[in-house]
């Protein structure tokens, strides 16, 4: 899986969270392919602090999917949402992690 990130992600999202989000996307797409579901190209992650612990909600539209994960990071971060988008070209498929304002 070829992975890219924008400058906003590189400068603002801790590397431990970057790795965790990439892992979750790979796991989700494996689950979908095993279940022969259509695989959505758009992953939305929304961050929230609760009791001094960071959590994030992973959402997709097709099929509708929502799951809450405990982050491997306990500090407050300066953003509340991250997108991961799969681009499928003729001979190449790759992923881009970006902030909503970079979309």
Enter the CATH topology name. Answer: Nuclear Transport Factor 2, Chain: A
Helix content: 25-40%
CA-atom Rg in angstroms: 14 Å
Q: Identify low-pLDDT runs.
A: none
Sheet with the most strands?
6 strands, mixed
Continuous helix count = 2
* Whole-number tally of structural domains: 1
Percent range for β-strand residues: 35-45%
User: Which class do the helix and strand fractions yield?
Assistant: alpha+beta
Name of the CATH superfamily: enterococcus faecalis protein
Choose one word for the global shape.
globular
In CATH's first tier, which class applies? Alpha Beta
| Overall mean confidence score, pLDDT | 93
Tally of DSSP β-strands: 6
Tags for this entry?
2 helices; Nuclear Transport Factor 2, Chain: A; about 25% helix; six-stranded mixed sheet; alpha+beta; about 100 residues; 6 strands
Write a structural description:
By secondary structure, the protein is of the alpha+beta class. The protein has a single domain, classed as Nuclear Transport Factor 2, Chain: A (Roll), CATH 3.10.450. It contains two helices and six strands; from the N terminus they run E-H-H-E-E-E-E-E. The chain has helices spanning 7-12, 15-34; strands at 2-5, 42-50, 53-60, 65-70, 81-88, 93-98. A six-stranded mixed beta sheet has the order 1-6-5-2-3-4. Strand 2 and strand 3 form a beta hairpin. The two termini are 21 Å apart.
């Amino acid at each position: 899986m070829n992975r890219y990130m924008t400058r906003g992600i590189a400068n603002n999202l801790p590397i431990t969270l970057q790795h965790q989000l990439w892992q979750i996307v790979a796991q989700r797409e494996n689950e979908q392919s095993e279940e022969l579901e259509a695989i959505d190209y758009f992953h939305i992650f929304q961050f929230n602090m609760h009791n001094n612990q960071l959590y994030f909600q992973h959402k997709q539209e097709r099929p509708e999917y929502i799951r809450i994960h405990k982050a491997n990071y306990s500090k407050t971060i300066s953003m509340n949402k991250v997108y991961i988008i799969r681009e499928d070209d003729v001979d190449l498929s790759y992923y881009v992690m970006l902030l909503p304002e970079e979309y």
